[in-house]
Amino acid sequence: MEATNSPKSVRPxxxxxxxxxxxxxxxxxxxxxQVLRRQSQVGGQLGSLLIEMxxxxxxxxxxxxxKKFGVPAENLFSRSIDAQTxxxxxxxxxxxxxxxPVADDGTTLTLAMVNPQDFAAISEIEFQVGKKVRPVVAxxxxxxxxxxxxxxxxxxxxxxxxxxxLVAMERGDExxxxxxxxxxxxxxxxxxxxxxxxxxxxxxKGNALKRLALPHLTPSDCEKYARDLLPPxxxxxxxxxxxxxxxxxYRGIGRFRVTIFQQRQSVAIALRPISDQxxxxxDLQLPAWLSEFALRPHGLIVVCGPAGHGKSTTxxxxxxxxxxxxxxxxxxxxxxIEYLFKHKSSNIxxxxxxxxxxxxxxxxxxxFRQAPDVIVVGELRDKETFRIALQAANSGHLVLSTAHAENxxxxxxxxxxxxxxxxxxxxxxxxxxxxxxxxxxxxxxxxNGSGRVPAIExxxxxHRLRKFIREGKTHQIRSQLQSGAExxxxxxxxxxxxxxxxxIAFEQGLVYAEDRQFYQELIQMxxxxxxxx
Length: 533
Fold this sequence. Notes:
Elements: H1 17-23, H2 29-42, H3 46-52, H4 58-69, E1 80-81, H5 83-86, H6 91-97, E2 99-104, E3 108-113, H7 119-129, E4 132-137, H8 140-151, E5 158-159, H9 160-171, H10 178-187, E6 192-196, E7 202-205, E8 208-211, H11 219-229, H12 235-241, E9 243-250, E10 254-263, E11 266-274, H13 289-294, E12 299-304, H14 311-325, E13 329-334, E14 347-352, H15 360-365, E15 374-377, H16 383-394, E16 398-403, H17 410-417, H18 421-434, E17 435-445, E18 452-460, H19 463-470, H20 474-481, E19 488-489, H21 491-500, H22 506-512, H23 516-526
Parallel strand pairs: 3-4, 12-16, 12-17, 13-14, 13-15, 15-16
Antiparallel strand pairs: 1-5, 2-3, 6-7, 6-11, 7-8, 9-10, 10-11, 17-18, 18-19
Helix pairs in contact: 9-10, 16-18, 17-18, 18-19, 21-22, 21-23, 22-23
């Protein structure tokens, strides 16, 4: 006997979402056919394509979904979600359930859901977080984009405007436009963007690299970006030298420090946004005593630290203090020019390496003919530049510069060791007489994940420390004065102070400590609790 299906066992076919849009009056049959054809060609979420092709507006789609499910609709592109809220639910569970926590008032958790009628998921989340769940509906394409961005993010929360920019970039059949990438870089408040063949565009936030949820760049993509960025007639110079650095301004977006370089027979690019406004000591959480040294009439000030930790910005802040408070002539040598200064109480002439002068050495060699009172050298790279900088500082000029060194005392020995043995004693004497301040700074991620804070090691060239330099005993400074003094404070003490103020987690301080054991002892002495990030 043949089996027959009773009417109760036959289920109607599940209605597709496109058909639901037609039935709900959001689009017509012809528009559905067009968007399905487009989807078969390029893929993507139906809702995203409907908006891209102009058939519906985001607000129309949200209104439709709200009416369909009987709950408020959530526009994830206009919502910022803090890191603490996102941590309430594991990312893998968000992905499997197509949900995302968007707000938490302490008693109720607002939960964005692709299907807000998934009552089993709501019950499970209520049990997990111990709070009432208020479901809201979010379009599937927004949820997919948010989850994708969250998985590749740096744990600093989710920002809807940057997410929308990312989705807009991802829609194109080609690589994102350069201007779109620059806008995204500015909106995210990232410190850098890296464009390199074989990887997606990447940004750096809080010392961590984050790859954007975009396709991998090709060598031709990177070359196109480089040609768009480079000044006219600079391509041949770049090919000859292998790297090229400069400042670029894009109206309506911002100013950037650009470094283009060759790697593995292709082009790579590092972009750093530069604020239009020169920050203050307070803005950067730098110590107020730096202002006193910036206003000294002569001597040498050196800012040390690793790359990407704000040396150039600290230098710019001190130059701005001089520019605002002294009537003098300031000459800068920069590679490239980052902050654009306006004449205030002082006259300030900014010279860019490669454009206005050939090198730091060539620029500083002729600087005495330019009637300077203050000389700013972007970086002390070679012994001849060091020699002239010392001569200038010893002859009544104030010289400010940066250098790569692992601490404030290492730069002293590094400078001396640049020279031939028969010159070293003379250089040592010059350095002991001219150096007034050396600081080392590193930017440490804040415990709350909202940014970075500078940890500052200071070396004030007092009478006592000047004697150490003259006698070639700078190595003893760290051992004898590690516990801290008015003229010397080690990086370990600076880190311990930041932890004591609950600004940084114990483990982050440990990463940047020079003497890890001493740092831990300082924490124990203050009775500070070890915090985890």
